[in-house]
């Protein structure tokens, strides 16, 4: 995963949506889509659902999955098809790590910043105002992070539902939430390049390069080695058992230690991203109280590193590749290894890709303050996005299937 600064944001970046500038930047978007993300074709499905909601004058929140840094390019291609610009709630770190020109371009495309670790009322009010009053949809990624899980939805946070429900309480128009699934498929086989990265990974930990093993086996062998190293670091010894259980146990141990150290009470049933968010908020507040040269900052910085490790581990479900060892799933896992272990700023894209973006039936947002209703709306959105993903997956042949089909015709 990408390392980002986690601290109090230096400023707020408002949206400056400009349909004219969106047209001006179209060639740049297309160039970056192809050259940086190797994304050639984008298929838009279910556009009629979104068009109907907009034609009815409804305020619309779009909730896509977030498996790739190319997602915004996919959605803006859909926006061009729909002839409808979009607003994006964007992590402040994206602006903070960009140049002034890059930030301005994002603002022209409707992006505005949000502090995901804090209580960002300015971003919240801006989002509510967009949904209540403006003619264009608001995009919120409920997963909150790019986990490189193209075929599996991670638990949605409740922020998107909270914004939609807050807007609905005082809106003069109906508010709906549109589930959206973005799915990527390789057009060309990236296996030769993946094998090269796998070799670098094995050599990095002084392992013999195992070309005699399948890529699937090498991935799991390497993952087992990594978790064993972290177990020794944090627990004093490596453990045995299924990989997914070991990852979950280590994550829970780290979070429990940090919660005790910082006096944070953790409610039952919180998902790991929410536990991390609560602890980060506490650590950031303590860092803000200290001078930059204060030696007391060092253990707090280590705590932030531990929280980042937990998020990294959360992005590895353990059975993602074994459940369906497609080239897409193996590539995503190696992409994460490249970012997490080789410290690449962002994983290289190997092979050209296509994308399918599918919009589902809009969900009407109830007018209520009931938190249980917000949790249920979030659950429904998560289920519907996964269903859209599964339907897309079932209808799209893989690289391996296309290769076999070509072979059968020869």
From TrEMBL:
Keywords: Acyltransferase, Transferase. The keyword Transcription regulation does not apply. The keyword DNA-binding does not apply. Residues 60-185 form the Phospholipid/glycerol acyltransferase domain. Coiled coil: none annotated. Pathway: Lipid metabolism. GO terms for biological process: phosphatidic acid biosynthetic process. GO terms for molecular function: 1-acylglycerol-3-phosphate O-acyltransferase activity. PANTHER family: 1-ACYL-SN-GLYCEROL-3-PHOSPHATE ACYLTRANSFERASE. This is Acyltransferase. The lineage of its organism: Bacteria, Pseudomonadati, Planctomycetota, Planctomycetia, Planctomycetales.
């Amino acid at each position: 995963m990408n390392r980002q600064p986690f601290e109090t944001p230096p400023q707020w970046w408002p949206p400056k949506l400009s349909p004219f500038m969106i047209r001006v930047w179209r060639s740049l978007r297309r160039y970056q889509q192809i050259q940086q993300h190797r994304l050639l074709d984008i298929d838009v499905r279910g556009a009629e659902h979104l068009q109907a909601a907009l034609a009815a004058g409804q305020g619309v929140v779009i909730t896509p999955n977030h498996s790739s840094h190319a997602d915004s390019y996919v959605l803006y291609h859909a926006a061009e098809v729909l002839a409808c610009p979009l607003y994006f709630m964007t992590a402040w770190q994206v602006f903070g790590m960009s140049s002034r020109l890059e930030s301005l371009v994002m603002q022209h495309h409707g992006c505005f910043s949000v502090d995901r670790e804090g209580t960002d009322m300015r971003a919240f009010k801006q989002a509510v105002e967009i949904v209540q009053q403006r003619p264009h949809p608001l995009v919120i990624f409920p997963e909150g992070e790019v986990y490189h899980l193209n075929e599996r939805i991670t638990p949605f946070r409740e922020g998107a539902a909270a914004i939609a429900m807050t807007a609905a309480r005082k809106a003069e128009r109906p508010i709906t939430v549109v589930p959206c699934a973005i799915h990527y498929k390789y057009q060309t086989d990236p296996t030769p390049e993946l094998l090269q990265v796998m070799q670098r990974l094995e050599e990095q930990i002084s392992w013999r390069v195992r070309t005699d093993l399948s890529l699937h086996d090498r991935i799991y062998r390497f993952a087992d080695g990594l978790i064993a190293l972290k177990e020794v670091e944090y627990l004093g010894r490596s453990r045995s058992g299924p990989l997914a259980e070991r990852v979950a146990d280590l994550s829970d141990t780290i979070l429990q230690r940090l919660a005790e150290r910082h006096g944070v009470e953790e409610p039952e049933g919180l998902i790991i991203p929410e536990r991390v968010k609560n602890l980060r908020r506490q650590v950031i507040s303590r860092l803000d109280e200290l001078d930059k040269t204060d030696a007391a900052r060092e253990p707090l910085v280590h705590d932030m590193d531990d929280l980042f490790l937990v998020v990294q581990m959360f992005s590895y479900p353990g059975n993602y590749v074994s459940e369906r060892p497609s080239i897409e799933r193996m590539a995503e896992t190696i992409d994460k290894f490249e970012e997490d272990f080789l410290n690449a700023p962002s994983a290289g894209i190997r092979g050209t890709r296509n994308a399918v973006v599918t919009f589902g039936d809009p969900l009407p947002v109830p007018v209520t303050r009931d938190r249980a209703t917000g949790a249920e709306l979030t659950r429904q959105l998560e289920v519907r996005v996964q269903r859209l993903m599964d339907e897309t997956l079932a209808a799209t042949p893989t690289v391996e299937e296309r290769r076999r089909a070509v072979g059968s015709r020869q």
